[in-house]
Target: SNX11 protein
Amino acid sequence: STTSPPAPQELTTVRVQDPRVQNEGSWNSYVDYKIFLHTNSKAFTAKTSCVRRRYREFVWLRRQLQKNAGLVPVPELPGKSTFFVGSTDEFIEKRRQGLQQFLEKVVQNVVLLSDSRLHLFLQSQLSVPAIEACVQGQGTQTVTEAILHYAMSNCGWVQEEESRP
Model:
């Protein structure tokens, strides 16, 4: 029997970086994070993507994944922590690490990876209601179209990111 060459290892790198405070100083200020994804996995439409998401959107994503994953355990998110002891920067950094660990575990789970909400969360800048509409077929684009549309609009950015040492 002929042995086929081993399939290349599928790798997905996901990084949560660059926390930014939006609407600083106002009552509705929040922090969002840059999610950078680089992969050779066939599971993903775009091989590189970058979006900004806030904690509340992660909470939504986790809830959706849980609903659809059945008995598959969904990784935990870092806590909401209303009274945090220490500096805000320290809190933001701890949360950033927690969000990154959450996503790293999620993208390694085949069941969770099959949820199109995850893909739209990671690879489009659609809002949560728009993701829901898209997944239910009520949006103007399919899930793949939405991701490709975003990937196209982001081309320059992705190259710029890759050319950094």
Notes: The chain has one domain: 12-160. The helical segments are 55-69, 88-107, 110-113, 116-123, 128-135, 143-153, 155-163. The chain has a mean pLDDT of 86. Strands lie at 12-22, 30-39, 48-54.
